[in-house]
Amino acid sequence: MIVIGGGLAGLAAGVALAESGWRVRLFEQRPFLGGRATSYVLPDGQHVDNCQHVTLGCCTNLEDFYRRIGAAGKITFFDRLLFLDPQGRRGEMHAGRWPAPFHLTWSFAAFRPLTLPDKLSIARAMLDILRTKGKPPDLLENGGISMLEWLRRRRQTKDAIERFWRVVLVSALDEELARTDARFGIDVFWKAFLSNSTGYRMGVPAVPLANLYDGCKSEIERRSGEVVLRTPVRGLKIENGAFAGLRFDEGREETADAYVFAVPHTELGDLLPQSMKQSDPALANLDKINVAPITGVHLWFDRPVMADPFLTLLNTTTQWIFNKSALCADSHGKEKGDPAGQYLQLVISASYDLLQKPRQEIIDLCLGELWEALPAVRDAELVKATVIKEAAATFSPEPGVDRWRPRQQTSVPSLFLAGDWTATGWPATMEGAVRSGYLAAEALLRSAGTPRRFLQPDLEPDGFIGMWLGRQSAATGN
């Protein structure tokens, strides 16, 4: 069988199918694996991630995937999330001794960037999420409502929206609150912050992103498969109106018993002939799924300017600062190739306003915000900088977008889909990408008469939430 695309979705499908006894041939158009969640080397030898990708404790399928490919030990988990507002007030979120859903209560109560009215309004909304087990009735409206509208209905204060809800959700979902389906936003808080006391823990790769996927290639190849880079698909071979193979450069053609397309939905829409789209309504609506951008700003200073491993800024264009010199350190505690200075990576999700701005303007904007947030920057020299814009980093989780997301098994014989944009129940995350790959593998195996399950269940609710849901389940006989 053939997998097209070497991002997380394609790799997850390829590894799962290789484990199931299929000979997998994976074709990737880039010279490296990982897709949008990868890294590459600058001319001076410096490794840079195209964007800092992280995982959370609630990402059970991503954790399973890392385990399968031997990369679990390359992820460092953190129990404390740090925040800083323009007034210099720091806030910290970490679990205490109380069980879920109260494990973050004490750190939330002491969160200095928020006032008491802010916290009370947030608490009211959280209670609503708890009462409805993460599925408030107004999320079921036809077409969905935006997260911003959901918050307004719950009378959230301006700072509660800007300094709490927006900070978490724009980073998690890569979209502004007014353009985000409330269902996705509520899911983030239910799964990561309320139902389990470890769901919020953040895992950051301790190696360049591309290094996470070394085990994928070896896992496929040791099972008689192959991974071929720098090989873009140029078209589909259609014979007698049926899908019959793939066309590559120089007239090369490849055929297989089954195909998993794990490419961005925009690319798939361009590849598919009109006849194939007409045969499956789900394939005809791919152009209705919009995209959202992420911008990464990489800064190298001549001296250390930041002690924390990462920091979230409030009310600024810059959303996250990652101390790459600490997160990807060698045995001497310095980032490889940078023995004296410090390398920071800044992340700006839903960065629509930056797409047309020149590189130097973005750097100057971020430096000005760092000058206020990290006083040591004022005495440091910027050695070099680069900006990476991903205009189509994710699909946009707009209200009602799920109606356009196709399932992994199509009505076209032997054609399966993988990608975070397919119907996974999750937004555009690495967890969603892996889920889609596992679901595609399961669909293919079912069609072949050899069903097998790869999809992992969500993180089990614990604490009072687990007891409450357990009693409800027992009362209803489920």
What attributes does this structure have?
single chain, 478 residues, alpha/beta, FAD/NAD(P)-binding domain, Polyamine Oxidase, Chain A, domain 2, 3 domains, 7-stranded mixed β-sheet, 5-stranded parallel β-sheet, 14 helices, 20 strands, globular
Q: How many strands?
A: 20
Q: Using the 3D structure, state the CATH architecture of the largest domain.
A: 3-Layer(bba) Sandwich
Which structural class do you get from the secondary structure elements? alpha/beta
| Beginning-to-end CA distance, first to last residue | 39 Å
Domains counted in the coordinates: how many?
A: 3
Structure, explained:
The chain is an alpha/beta fold. The chain folds into 3 domains: 2-41 and 59-73 and 206-289 and 398-447, FAD/NAD(P)-binding domain; 80-196, no CATH class; 291-395, Alpha-Beta Complex (Polyamine Oxidase, Chain A, domain 2), CATH 3.90.660.10. The protein has 14 helices and 20 strands. The protein has helices spanning 8-19, 60-68, 105-109, 116-131, 147-153, 158-173, 182-194, 214-221, 265-271, 274-279, 324-327, 359-373, 430-447, 463-476; strands spanning 2-4, 25-27, 39-41, 47-49, 55-56, 75-78, 81-84, 90-93, 202-205, 226-228, 235-239, 242-247, 253-254, 259-261, 291-301, 310-313, 320-323, 342-349, 382-395, 415-417. It is globular and about 70 Å long. 47% of the residues are buried. Mean pLDDT is 92; it is low at 330-337.
